[in-house]
Design goal:
The chain is of the alpha+beta class. The protein is built from 5 helices and 9 strands, in the order E-E-H-H-E-E-E-E-E-H-H-H-E-E. The strands form 2 sheets. Strands 3-6-7-1-2-9-8 form a 7-stranded mixed sheet, with helices on both faces. Strands 4-5 form a two-stranded antiparallel sheet.
Length: 164
């Protein structure tokens, strides 16, 4: 199953591919103590839906029905697969440090997104989705990086399949 997290604040977009192996590694680790988990979950719950797949996915741990990985959310700075909210709440998903830092800098309060911003983010999300789900970007190795230029943007792809 493919899922992603992308920082959309710059021209060079860090794009994290999150694998089932990575989620499984997260589930057995101890939760970080420097993160306010209830504030983080409230932050994730306030994210704006930019693309909704009217189908459910299955949790890799218990086969429970969850939001599809192809449903996309944003806080205005990042775009992520909808199932990551579930894995964050119940299975200790380890968000990349850059995401956590971004959230903490805003005191766990997402910024307001205007209709125009939402449309721009949705366009970018569609572009990223084509790269992720259409398998049009270069395969990378575990925790390796690869820079590839698409549509005037540079994507720095990192495969997360072991804890960072």
């Amino acid at each position: 199953m493919k899922r992603f997290l992308a920082d959309i604040q710059t021209h060079e977009i860090p794009l994290y591919q999150i694998t089932d192996t990575y989620l499984q590694a997260c589930a057995v680790r101890e939760t970080r103590r420097d993160i306010d988990l209830s504030a983080l979950q409230a932050y994730l719950d306030k994210a704006c839906y930019i693309e909704i797949l009217l189908d459910l996915g299955k949790c890799i741990f218990d086969n429970q029905s969850i939001t599809s990985n192809e449903t996309l959310l944003t806080d205005g700075n990042w775009i992520w697969s909808g199932d990551l909210n579930h894995y964050s709440l119940l299975h200790h998903f380890a968000w990349p440090e850059a995401f956590i830092t971004s959230v903490q800098k805003r005191s766990y309060k997402p910024k307001r997104i205007t209709g125009r911003q939402k449309n721009e983010i949705a366009h970018l999300a569609n572009e990223i989705s084509r790269k992720v789900y259409g398998e049009q970007f270069t395969t990378v190795y575990p925790n390796g990086k690869d820079e590839t230029v698409y549509a005037e943007r540079t994507y720095v792809v990192t495969a997360l399949d072991t804890l960072i």
